[in-house]
Amino acid sequence: MQIIKKVLNSSVVLVDDERGVERVLLGKGIGFGAKPGDVVDEGATDRVFVALDDADQRNLVELLAQIPGEFVELTREIVRDAVASGLDLDPHIYLTLTDHLHFAVERHRRGLVVVNRLAWELRTVYPDEYAVGSRGVELLRARMRVDVPDEEAANIAFHLANAANGRAGADTMHVVRLISAATTIVSNTTGIAFGDDLHSSRFLVHLQFFAERVFSGRMLDSDDGFLFESMSRRHPRATATAERVRALVRTQHDIEITDEEVAYLALHIARAVPG
């Protein structure tokens, strides 16, 4: 049994369950005509529960009180599409993506243009999330009657990837920024030009898994150091480039990348630029 504690909008209410645990309950029209103290009808099945476990999330819930319910419904459709595409998302995507979609529409209506400088990386590294984001943009245009730019797909993809990475213990913004910084280092050092070709996509996929391992604390780390010594001897230029990435991570994130991770990064660099 859930008892309504607060109505946030027509599609979102704050409830206490039978154990007194506070949760967000999302459902089409669930808040319409409801008031605190009402018992939620248990007959409906198309609902989503989101648990609250810290002050920041509760503050975000308060924001939903200022957002029309149709944005919640739009988020639910995008999330359903994402789940059908095989993505495993943290439930807080319902809060963060709803807030973002509302902000995106308001920003567009005010004529404010914000460029996502990581759009290419997001599209390349997270193609499934980007595909869902592209369909989400079409829904957003149709439902809200606003001609948001195609680039908004990257913003939606970011929130989806962040919710998926949250399951794995990685932070998407850190991951994507490291990928961007690493490609810049490799490009400037070796002359590799990254684009939409198969080679670039293959290298970026390696960087994705590399960055996710770095930020989730699951780096490769053998004891013998054979691969690192071999790469240093046979491919000094590629290894030196990988060492620059290691120095960047150490400086910006205070994380020490293992020799084995540097060696594997150098190996992928050497595939394109031997020496």
UniProtKB/TrEMBL annotation:
PROSITE patterns: PRD_2. Residues 66-170, 171-275 form the PRD domain. Keywords: Repeat. The keyword Repeat applies. The keyword Repeat applies. InterPro entries: BglG_antiterminators, CAT_RNA-bd_dom, CAT_RNA-bd_dom_sf, PRD, PRD_sf. PANTHER family: CRYPTIC BETA-GLUCOSIDE BGL OPERON ANTITERMINATOR. This is PRD domain-containing protein. It comes from Microbacterium plantarum.
